[in-house]
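User: I'm putting together notes for a lab meeting next week and I want to include a structural view of one of the chains we've been expressing. I don't have a solved structure, so I'd like a prediction I can at least talk through. The sequence is below, exactly as it appears in our construct file.
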Amino acid sequence: MATDTGIVTIYDLESDGKPLTCHKIDAREFLRHPRWSATPPEGEGAPEKAKGDSGEAMRLKELSFNALRAMAHKAGIADFQTMKKAELVIALTPAEK
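Assistant: Thanks for the context. Below is the predicted structure for the 97-residue chain, given as structure tokens.
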């Protein structure tokens, strides 16, 4: 089961989009001011976007191991019975476009 740590990244628009990692409660206070943004700025000097999980991968990670096995069986994935949970998530995640 996924655990929400409450840690988020916000961006300082007055400092070329430098990231700041903070707790959600503090981020809400920061985001009331126009200096801060929840999304990184675009263009030159913007931080490179990290490759993160897609929404589908996040949804799959929250499922139980047995539910993932059932989905893999239904999808016809070979050797799903010997796979670990992380391998099942990767196998069930659609290829990125």
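A couple of points you could mention at the meeting. The beta strands are 7-12, 18-23, 36-37. The chain has a mean pLDDT of 80.

User: Perfect, that's what I needed.
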